[in-house]
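hey can u check if this looks right to u? its 404 residues, i copy pasted from the old doc so theres a chance i mangled smth
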Amino acid sequence: MSSTVETASTRSAEAGHWGKEVRSDAHVAFEARDGGGVEISLESRVAPYYGSAILEQTREVLSELGVKHARVAIHDEGALPFVIAARIEAAARRTGIALGKRSLPEQHPLPPPSQKDRLRRSRLYLPGSEPKYYINASLHAPDAVILDLEDSVHRGEKDAARILVRNTLRAVDFGSCERMVRINQLPLGLEDLAEVVGETPDLILIPKAEQPEQVREVDRMIAEIKERNGIIRPIWIMPILESALGIENAFAVATASENVAALTIGLEDYTADLGVVKTAEGGESQYARWRVVNAAHAAGVEAIDSVFSDVADMDGLRRWGEASRAAGFEGMGCIHPGQIRVIHEAFQPSAVEIEKARRVVAAFEEAQSKGLAVVSLGSKMIDPPVVQRALKLVERAKAMGAIS
């Protein structure tokens, strides 16, 4: 819920959600006052167990924000502390009163930095305004999670969502998942960057990318925030091509910054731009997808396919994933945890492929040990590109756990 009311002596606003269907969230009604100190009321199903802790946290958050006079009403639906803090801050900001520093939850230990060429078979979209999906996301074992600030967030909730995503990056352990954030289309996305980059996401997705300058603008802002905050970890970029113009500029976009790690495509917006119907077979987008694959490989970055939107059609998903891998893609997006296992299986090399690649690698290593420039396998000569393909396949199979 998002609303703001202003009178001569009070300013009030709300943030968050509550109700029968809501879980892991909180609704905060904030009324700024000219005096009278701080008053807090709480309704929560867990009040007998955690009521005192929630009230104490609320006082701490208000103090950190510099709020001295306010009336705050909280409807808690099982929210964790980082969510409550985000909702209080969002509601307070919406009143327009002057606030002190941000209220940040305790920093969870950061995972190791993400490698530019790391495994990205699956990336699970999580709505940026729905905290109920965050805590258990890593249990489904996607290669990456995407905290989405764009399409899944109502335009009236963008401000609250970016605060929630910021706190999530600090407080939630996503295990081995790469932590991605999809910002909004520029220029609104720059406001997202200002809020979340200081909490070191591993990768930023840029929607509706059409020109290399968009990538460079995002890259410059990330670099400025990193320098200001003393961040030395890499933050990679993945442009999303979602229009005919974006597809035509694919290579220029992919090479706009050395921090671009992958290039992907959004087929819903692309087919809408063309004015055609998106089909399960994908013939209408074949040219665009091939263009993305070629541009990505020419630029030396990963090619990542779009999502498969029919979450009930697992056979269709498998066919799409296998065709994507055959075309040169290295992964795809997913909008439901149930898609992850099928995607991983679709992008895993077969036992026959792995065995052939291992024999090529063994022949290459033997030739290297003997100082031979020519690699042969049985009676056949092996060209260098075949060796390189085999080496990459073996490495990726190891990363997938297909071989030890």
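The chain has 13 helices and 15 strands.
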